[in-house]
Structures are given as structure tokens and as C-alpha cells.
Amino acid sequence: PTRDKEALQSAIRGFSTSLGTAIGSAELKAIDAIAEINPDVAPSGIDLRAIEGEGGLQEGELEQLIQSEGYQPDIVVLLTDGANSDGAHPLMAAQQAADRRVRIYTIGFGTDNPGRMT
């Protein structure tokens, strides 16, 4: 996670296309990276819906957290060709992000000739 525009541009310049995409796993990794710096975001290994009302969050607390005033969403920008070929299911990972109020913005692209992105 960063707000440093130069660091972000440098990371993007290092991307390359290749065969194989683990979209869901990337989403979960992003949730965990956000959780490391934002204590209000639970790591991906915690099922917020399963613990609601069972000694964890009380009924309605998850919704109350989501609707709190002054909320600034954490975001993930996902660059993908849309073909998930490995790892966690993207919809399950997206639901975990939604449960944590993490927004995922997807940019789709593709190529028949994998190589370094410029």
C-alpha cells in the first residue's frame, strides 16, 4: 500500500504479462497488505460473516461499522485479463474485500503475446 505516486509508477513499470493469473489470491494478498497498516481492516483469514453474533461482532455491528461517519475506503486496483487460472476464487475474495469495506477497481486488458509491459 502506498500514496507515493513515484513508487506506484515504478512498481507498474516492473509488471510483466505472463500465462497464468491468480485473481482471487491477489485480492486476498491485497487485503492482508492493507490489514498490516490499517488496524480497522481484518486479515483475509478471518471470516467476518461467520463470527458475527457468535462472540465476535454483535448483531448489526458489521453494518454499523460500514456506515460510520468519516469513513475513508481502502482501495485495490486490480490489473487483469479476467481469466483466473489458479488460487482462490475471485468472487470469494471480492466478498471478503466487501466485508472489510475495501473497494476493488478492476482494469481489464489482454494480449496474445506475453512480455514486459511498457
Walk me through the structure.
- This protein is an alpha+beta fold.
- It has a domain at about 5-45 and about 70-110.
- It has 5 helices and 2 strands; from the N terminus they run H-H-H-H-E-H-E.
- The chain has helices spanning about 5-15, 25-35, 50, 60-65, 90-100, and strands at about 75-80, 100-110.
- A two-stranded parallel sheet has the order 1-2.
- Strand 1, helix 5 (about 90-100) and strand 2 (about 100-110) form a beta-alpha-beta unit.
- Helix 2 (about 25-35) runs parallel beside helix 5.
- It is globular.
- Residues about 50-55 have low confidence and may be disordered.
Helix-strand layout with pairing:
Blueprint: H1 5-13, H2 23-37, H3 48-51, H4 61-66, E1 74-80, H5 90-99, E2 102-108
Parallel strand pairs: 1-2
Summarize the structure.
The protein is α+β, with helices and mostly antiparallel strands and 118 residues long. It has a domain at 5-44 and 72-108.
User: What global shape is seen?
Assistant: globular
Number of H- or I-type helical stretches: 5
Structural class from helices and strands? alpha+beta
- Largest sheet, order of strands side by side? 1-2
